User: Which sequence fits this backbone?
């Protein structure tokens, strides 16, 4: 009997941890901007149009920086890799558009996802729920 109580307690603890992690993910809508002027121009362009699918190499050529230098400095200044930052920018823009009542399909395409299902899965992985549940739960999008 004691073993069953221990297992039930562990399941409750795991459920609380999952809830807390999901709640923490919902508030992580901050997007750090780099300070170096070329990296800032790149970040601003991506934040303005997150659907841009230019590669890291294309961005490096465009801003006149070696790919490895861009990778290293971007991560040092933002705390995220280029790919992570781009995904965060897309999700941030998506939350803004969804909050204004835009349909999920339109938002997914506007922020650069090739399919609605890929967008919903990425959103769910990041925030712990689907876009519709995110807003139904009264998530705070002001951060």
Assistant:
């Amino acid at each position: 009997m004691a073993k069953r109580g221990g297992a039930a307690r562990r399941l409750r603890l795991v459920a609380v941890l999952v809830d807390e992690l999901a709640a923490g993910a919902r508030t992580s809508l901050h997007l750090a901007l780099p300070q170096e002027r070329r990296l800032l121009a790149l970040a601003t362009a991506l934040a303005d149009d997150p659907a841009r699918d230019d590669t890291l190499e294309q961005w490096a050529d465009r801003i006149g920086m070696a790919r490895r230098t861009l990778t290293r400095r971007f991560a040092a200044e933002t705390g995220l890799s280029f790919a992570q930052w781009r995904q965060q920018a897309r999700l941030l823009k998506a939350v803004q558009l969804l909050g204004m009542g835009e349909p999920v399909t339109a938002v997914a395409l506007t922020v650069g996802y090739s399919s609605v299902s890929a967008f919903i899965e990425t959103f769910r992985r990041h925030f712990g729920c689907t876009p519709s549940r995110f807003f139904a739960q009264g998530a705070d999008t002001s951060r």
Observations:
- The mean pLDDT is 85.
- The chain is about 70% helix and 0% strand.
- The domain at 1-143 is CATH 1.10.10.60 (Arc Repressor Mutant, subunit A).
- The two ends are 46 Å apart (CA to CA).
